[in-house]
Amino acid sequence: MTDDHTQTRAGFIALIGEPNAGKSTLLNQMVGAKVSIVTHKVQTTRARIRGIAMEGAAQLVFVDTPGIFRPRRRLDRSMVAAAWGGVSDADVIVLLIEAHRGLTDGVQQILDNLRETAGDRPAALAINKIDRVNPEILLSLTQQMNEAYPFAQTFMISAQKGRGTDALRKYLAETVPEGPWLYPEDQLADLPMRMIAAEITREKLTLRLHEELPYQLTVETEAWEDRKDGSARIDQIVYVARAGHKGIVLGHKGETIRAVGKAAREELTDFLGRPVHLFLTVKLRENWLNEAERFTEMGLDFNDG
């Protein structure tokens, strides 16, 4: 806790960028715990997950937005709307780009939108994956990006290795507005535990399965029972949009869903710090991509689609 003479600060920070730029990895690095799912696939972050980090007397509330891309389906459009909604709510904006990809068409489109939505709020540039390019390219990219947009500060980081993230966290702590903290000091994220549990299972499915399938399924925590022995029983449903997908998710003699359940249970046990009994059921729900209720479960607005 801070003493009475220390002025507390608190604010929302929107992490924006193209899919796979490393936003979830950076969020988890900043918070010091896994609150946003990280996979090698794009578009894995659906809802605006808020991770909370303490830096001195400042509370930093990170809004990890879905990657901004050209939307094709209702779910895509809702995800992009959620991303820009995160920018509208933020006190500080951090644009994350990949060092080896530079100023892509997608980044240029984000910059164009940022001019319209950022107003007078400070925006910092974080160039990620700096170990993939040589210093000359980084210097040139920094100059190019700052000519394209008036960034308040530029940071060279490796979100995965934690390089440069301390300087970014310190800058954010000095930049968020003065005011009382927004959440209890020991809280990591404002997502309900049921949703975090569903996200963890969805991550395991995404890692296990390939092609378009992961974006055609969703996971919901149907029931959560805290048992007297300190353990938790969690029942989840994996909804698939096509009949053929059910067999893929289950796998030969149920081996895929068993492996997913085991990996999710182990991570949930570690995350909660107590034993977890996880039960997964796979159900066909052909129209879930067009159901308002499913979007609400993911923290998205159906009407934005």
UniProtKB/TrEMBL annotation:
Pfam families: KH_2 (PF07650), MMR_HSR1 (PF01926). It comes from the Bacteria. It is a peripheral membrane protein. Residues 157-159 are annotated as: G5. The keyword Phosphoprotein does not apply. Gene3D superfamilies: 3.30.300.20, P-loop containing nucleotide triphosphate hydrolases. Residues 17-24 are annotated as: G1. GO terms for biological process: ribosomal small subunit assembly. GTP binds at residues 17-24, 64-68, 128-131. InterPro entries: G_ERA_dom, GTP-bd, GTPase_Era-like, KH_dom-like_a/b, KH_dom_type_2, KH_sf_prok-type, P-loop_NTPase, Small_GTP-bd. Residues 64-67 are annotated as: G3. Residues 128-131 are annotated as: G4. Residues 43-47 are annotated as: G2. One of its GO terms (cellular component) is cytosol. Residues 9-178 form the Era-type G domain. Keywords: Cell membrane, Cytoplasm, GTP-binding, Membrane, Nucleotide-binding, Ribosome biogenesis, RNA-binding, rRNA-binding. GO terms for molecular function: GTP binding; GTPase activity; ribosomal small subunit binding; small ribosomal subunit rRNA binding. Residues 209-286 form the KH type-2 domain. It is found in: Cytoplasm; Cell membrane. An essential GTPase that binds both GDP and GTP, with rapid nucleotide exchange. Plays a role in 16S rRNA processing and 30S ribosomal subunit biogenesis and possibly also in cell cycle regulation and energy metabolism. HAMAP family: GTPase_Era (MF_00367). Monomer. Belongs to the TRAFAC class TrmE-Era-EngA-EngB-Septin-like GTPase superfamily. Era GTPase family. This is GTPase Era. It comes from Paracoccus isoporae.
